[in-house]
Amino acid sequence: MIKHIVMWNLRGATRAERQSHAGQLRDSFDSLKGRIPGLLHLEVGVDHSCVDYACDVVLYSEFESQAALDAYATHPEHLRVKRELGDLRVTRHQVDYAAPARAGVPSATDPRELLE
Q: Are 42 and 64 in contact (CB under 8 A)?
């Protein structure tokens, strides 16, 4: 499994404006659920700490493989979301890493294993 984490700081002169942009970002990414092959989990979190070094939004997603994450990058639905969000972001940070299999959780690389 590959975990893909992206954090953004968003444009906006006020907290309310950044919060509005965060809601737009969350809705756009939520629309990807069930539409991207190999995307196992997706959640968007909006910061509520208000500390000066925090990012405004985080995307946490899990993919069944590196190939699935690579395909996501150019998938038409993902490209649609990128267009919708345009230039809302000021900064972007990303981490992708391979996660070890968890005990008792079937591998998602072979969908047949999920049925056993």
A: no
